[in-house]
Amino acid sequence: MKGKPIVGEGIIKMCTFNSSLTNPKNAYFFFDYSYLLVFVWLLCALAQKPTGDYFPPAHQWTQKTPAALGLNPTKIQEAIAFAKAARSKNPRSMEQSHYQSFGKEPYGFAVGPFNDRGDQTGVIVYKGYIIAKWGEPSL
């Protein structure tokens, strides 16, 4: 027998250099079914129908009202009010906020300048359309 005995899980196995694909007896089997695999792959690729979904180009989002997309405008306004009420309680000064949190860690000193945090800003996108925005979103 060719190969080196390998012991694994209490069973002695022989490691040979004959792969199932390089063995002439099995090579015919592999190539016989490879045509079938290619045919099935092509069939699946051609069976997919292109969808007419809206996909906006970069920086050109279309805006629609929530009602135009079948959403309740009152619920959207409630979601915006909730987001505004759940703003961060940390100070607006990002430097002060840094030293109150990460600045306590070893080597937690600041690297570079800090900006102050701006007003609450948000955008709601539904099915690729902007249905609401608040604050100063730059799209």
Helix residue percentage: 25-40%
Beta-strand share of residues: 15-25%
Which structural category fits the helices and strands? alpha+beta
Number of strands: 4
Terminus-to-terminus distance: 70 Å
Tell me the Rg in angstroms.
31 Å
Task: State the major sheet.
Answer: 2 strands, antiparallel
Can you tell me the residue ranges where pLDDT is under 50 for at least 5 consecutive residues? 10-18
Shape: flat
Order of helices and strands: EEHHHEE
Q: Count of DSSP helices?
A: 3
Give a summary of the structure in a few sentences:
By secondary structure, this protein is α+β, with helices and mostly antiparallel strands. The protein has helices spanning 24-47, 73-85, 94-100, and strands at 4-8, 11-15, 122-126, 129-134.
Commentary on this structure:
- It is a single chain.
- By secondary structure, the chain is α+β, with helices and mostly antiparallel strands.
- Strands 1-2 form a two-stranded antiparallel ribbon.
- It has 3 helices and 4 strands.
- Helix content is 32%, strand content 15%.
Features:
alpha+beta, 139 residues, 3 helices, two-stranded antiparallel ribbon, single chain, 32% helix
List the topology elements.
Layout: E1 4-8, E2 11-15, H1 24-47, H2 73-85, H3 94-100, E3 122-126, E4 129-134
Antiparallel strand pairs: 1-2, 3-4
